[in-house]
Each structure stands twice: as structure tokens, then as C-alpha cells.
């Protein structure tokens, strides 16, 4: 049996965020007593979910005039990305700098994110990333111990691999749609710099910075990552920089950098910062990360 | 026949496969999309920790929904002062009802909805999408287009109602075609 239009309209107001307190209270009372209305409500929430899925799949409309060279504007296209920054866990700022090069080459550099894990309440989700502009991985903010000082600020990120793991990483997705469209004659690269430390002996880890360009939007990167491990249709390019600290410098900070030239058709770049070559038979160590700097560099190459 | 134990790489594959459907389930219990995102995040961490409880891959969707349900109720208790959320009793009733929906049901609904969306004009479709992009989307859209929120809500409400009717009609036709 169908429900009254009044009840269906109230469900719609609730789902579109238009219902006030009294209306939510009324809907709650109706749902409690009416099984048919609960079915109607759940059908409506499923439709709402499907519509949202479809709406998020739509290509983002570029602003008029975006075919010219990159400008100094910064556009937030993805509301989720903005919300991620507003959480305030990370200090991301936007700084453009134009660096003249020889031969008419112009290089424009934009800060994507800097991170030194100063928020004492920081605790990341230990999973592969499913959204842009957030760090994911088994990491918490700590005051460094064992005679180690932070590279930046007073705290560092402590990466804690699970017992038995041979490798562990923290990851971050850059949504390239958040940045100005690339103009003809320009190439773009992502440059990452991070400091690692292994203050507790017992393991001889290698440190790794891996940058991977995906054709997928940030929320679909995880699936592409799992399904397509090699470079292919969705994993477009990957750069891996491994660093083995000298045996007598294990407790020092080690700065590791990597740069990825972003291929055409890329939508997301995943930054993985991790340790590997762990011995699962030895006690688990904690590792420190600090002073992460990520920049997007736009280089103009004159055709002559 | 014994199965290999489900490990963490299996978990990622299963979670990714069912994430959309889990999101649909959570939406039935939660008032807005940010709340759905938060609960899914928390639930995924719980699933990760309790993976040893899952015996068969085939049980993942049911098992994962139980965890999402628990996390949604927990979120509701934390937001008890919020007057825009349903009572715990109502949420339990909705969750009981929603557990009977299968992944195949959702797949079919998505296909039918896509067909109905394609029958709409471009502008109408964009209005429907814009309103669902984020919470309060109707109000923001109204401000951007110099209309009152109420008049725009009514227009979008009519479009959503016609979509619902289209889906209902098509689902009925499919059911009849399959006896």
C-alpha cells in the first residue's frame, strides 16, 4: 500500500537536509509505528545513495578560461578535500613561487602539503586511502625519545608496523583536480621530501618514498591499487626511491626525496612513505617520520 | 571443505567490493553523508581488528553490516543532543528491515535508476545531482541561483519524486517479466 504524499515529502525533506527538529520528530514517530513507511523510507535512502554515487561520478566542470596557462588562483573543487583540511590535523598551505630557468624555461612551484605531526591527538586510520588530502596509516604523533630531536617543531610521527609485517607505510592522495589545469607546453611533477629515523636498534630497515599516478579519482584509487598492482590502464606511472641508511648512522635522521613526472590522464597521485626490509622474527621497532614537504612543480618548456 | 583463513589483503578486496553497499546500508540509519563517512571509517577499523571472526568470504556483507549497525548506533548515542537524529528504537527497526536487502537487489536498483536518470533532461539531471552532492546542497544551490530554498526544494522534490516513480514502475515491469 502506498504512503500519503505528506509522509513521502517529509522523507524527502529529511534526506535533503531541509527537515527541522519538529519534522524529524514527526517522521521518527511515524517510522516507529508504520512498517510500510519504514520500507518506503529505506527505498528512498537507497535511491538517495544511488543518486549520490552517480553525482560523484560526474566529471567536474572546469571554469571558463581554464585552458590558458596556470594562474595563481587556487580552486577547491572537491568539498571533501576542503573539509579534510579544515579538520586541522595537518598544516597545508598554498604558496606559489615562480623560478626563472635558463633557455626560457619557467618553473612554478606550489606547496601541496607540509606535515610535522604537531597535533598530539593525531591518530591516523590504518588503512589504504579512500579520500584526498588526508594521511592514512598506523601512525600517531609523539614527542621523540632516545636522544632524538624533531626535525621540525617538537613532535614527530611514530610509524608502528604490525608484528610480523615486513613493510609499513603512511599514504596520502593528491587530487590533481584541486589544482589548475595544465596548459599546453607545460609538464607537471610532484616532489616529495621526508625525514626518517629508526631510533631503536634491532632492525635494519630501508626507507622508501613511492609516488604513484592513477587515472582514478581519489576515492577509487584503493580499488585500482588492489586490482592492478603493475603499471597499466589505471596505474599510469610509479617512481620508487629506496634508501638504505649506513649502519653507523641508524639513529640519525635521513632525508629521502623523490619526484614523479605526472603523465597525461592522471587524476590522483598517491604518496607512500614507509619502511621495509623488516625482519618479522625480530622485535617490532617504531619509526619516526618528520618534516614532510610535498610540492607540485609546473615546468613550461618553450617549443623553440 | 575447509577454506584458507581470510587475511588482511582479502579484507581490502572484500571491503572495496562491498563498500558502496555498506554505505547504502549506513545511509538508512544516519542523517547525512558526513555521518555516513565517519561511521564507515570507524567500522572499517573495527572490521580490520576483528577479521579473525569472519569465517567465510560469502559472509562478509552480512558480518560487515552488523559492525556498521553497531557503529551507527554508537554514533547516534554520541550525538544524543542532536535533535535532527532519529531515536535509537527507530534506528534498530530500520536496521532490522535493511538487513534483508541483498547486494543483488542494490545492483538491480542502480541499473534501473541509471535508466531513469538517462530519461531526464540534462538540466533536470544536473539539479538532482547538485542537490545530492552534499548536505545542505539545496540551500547552497538556491543562494547561487538567486532562488528561495523552498521554491528550489519543491522543484527538486518533484524531480526526485518522478525518479522514484520511474524506478518503482521499472522494477515492477522487471518483476513481471521474470514471473
Structural class of chain A comes to alpha+beta
CATH class of the largest domain in chain B, named Mainly Alpha
The sequence of SSEs of chain B as H and E is: HHHHHHHH
CATH class type of the largest domain in chain A? Mainly Beta
Determine the CATH topology of the largest domain in chain A: Jelly Rolls
CATH architectural type of the largest domain in chain A = Sandwich
Count of beta strands of chain A:
12
Structural category of chain B: mainly alpha
- Ends of chain A: how far apart? 73 Å
The greatest inter-chain interface is formed by: A-B, 46 and 57 residues
Our count of helices of chain A gives 5
In this structure, how is the largest beta sheet of chain B organized?
none
Q: How large, in whole angstroms, is the Cα Rg of chain B?
A: 19 Å
Could you say which overall geometry of chain B the principal axes of the C-alpha atoms support? globular
Overall pLDDT level of chain B: 85
**Main sheet makeup of chain A:** 7 strands, antiparallel
Oligomer: heterodimer
**What's the average pLDDT of chain A?**
75
Shape of chain A: globular
Distance between the termini of chain B: 35 Å
Amino acid at each position: 500500500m502506498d504512503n500519503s504524499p505528506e509522509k513521502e515529502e517529509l522523507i524527502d525533506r529529511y534526506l535533503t537536509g531541509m527537515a527541522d527538529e519538529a519534522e524529524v520528530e514527526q517522521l521518527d514517530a511515524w517510522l516507529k509505528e508504520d512498517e510500510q513507511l519504514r520500507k518506503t523510507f529505506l527505498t528512498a535512502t537507497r535511491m538517495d545513495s544511488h543518486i549520490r554515487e552517480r553525482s560523484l561520478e560526474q566529471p567536474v566542470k572546469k571554469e571558463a578560461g581554464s585552458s590558458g596557462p596556470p594562474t595563481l588562483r587556487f580552486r577547491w573543487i572537491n568539498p571533501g578535500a576542503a573539509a579534510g583540511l579544515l579538520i586541522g590535523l595537518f598544516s597545508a598551505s598554498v604558496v606559489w613561487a615562480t623560478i626563472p630557468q635558463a633557455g626560457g624555461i619557467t618553473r612554478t612551484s606550489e606547496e601541496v602539503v607540509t606535515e610535522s605531526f604537531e597535533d598530539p591527538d593525531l591518530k591516523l586510520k590504518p588503512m589504504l586511502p579512500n579520500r584526498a588530502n588526508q594521511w592514512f596509516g598506523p601512525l600517531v604523533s609523539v614527542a621523540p625519545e632516545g636522544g632524538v630531536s624533531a626535525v621540525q617543531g617538537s613532535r614527530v610521527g611514530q610509524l608502528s608496523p604490525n608484528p610480523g609485517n615486513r613493510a609499513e607505510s603512511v599514504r596520502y592522495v593528491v587530487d590533481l583536480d584541486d589544482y589548475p589545469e595544465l596548459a599546453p607546453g607545460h609538464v607537471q611533477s610532484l616532489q616529495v621530501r621526508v625525514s626518517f629515523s629508526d631510533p631503536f636498534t634491532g632492525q635494519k630497515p630501508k626507507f622508501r618514498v613511492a609516488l604513484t599516478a592513477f587515472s582514478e579519482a581519489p576515492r577509487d584509487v584503493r580499488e585500482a591499487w588492489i586490482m592492478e598492482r603493475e603499471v597499466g590502464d589505471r596505474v599510469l606511472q610509479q617512481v620508487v626511491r629506496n634508501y638504505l641508511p649506513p649502519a653507523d648512522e641508524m639513529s640519525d635522521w635521513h632525508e629521502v626525496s623523490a619526484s614523479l613526472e605526472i603523465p597525461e590522464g592522471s587524476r590522483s597521485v598517491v604518496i607512500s612513505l614507509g619502511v621495509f626490509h623488516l625482519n618479522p622474527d625480530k622485535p617490532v621497532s617504531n619509526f619516526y617520520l618528520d618534516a614532510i614537504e610535498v610540492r607540485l612543480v609546473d615546468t613550461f618548456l618553450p617549443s623553440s | 571443505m575447509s577454506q584458507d583463513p581470510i587475511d588482511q589483503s582479502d579484507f581490502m578486496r572484500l571491503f572495496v567490493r562491498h563498500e558502496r553497499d555498506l554505505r547504502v546500508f549506513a545511509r538508512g540509519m544516519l542523517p547525512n553523508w558526513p555521518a555516513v563517512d565517519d561511521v564507515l571509517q570507524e567500522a572499517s577499523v573495527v572490521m580490520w581488528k576483528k577479521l579473525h571472526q569472519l569465517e567465510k568470504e560469502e559472509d562478509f556483507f552480512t558480518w560487515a553490516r552488523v559492525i556498521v549497525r553497531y557503529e551507527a548506533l554508537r554514533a547516534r548515542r554520541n550525538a544524543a543532543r542532536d535533535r535532527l537524529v532519529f531515536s535509537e528504537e527507530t534506528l534498530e527497526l530500520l536496521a532490522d528491515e535493511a538487513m534483508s536487502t541483498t547486494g543483488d537487489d542494490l545492483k538491480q536498483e542502480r541499473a534501473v535508476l541509471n535508466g531513469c536518470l538517462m530519461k531526464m533532461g540534462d538540466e533536470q539531471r544536473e539539479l538532482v545531482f547538485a542537490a545530492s552532492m552534499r548536505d545542505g546542497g539545496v540551500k547552497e544551490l538556491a543562494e547561487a541561483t538567486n532562488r528561495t530554498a523552498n521554491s528550489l526544494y519543491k522543484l527538486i522534490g518533484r524531480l526526485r519524486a518522478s525518479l522514484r516513480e520511474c524506478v518503482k514502475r521499472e522494477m515492477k515491469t522487471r518483476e513481471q517479466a521474470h514471473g
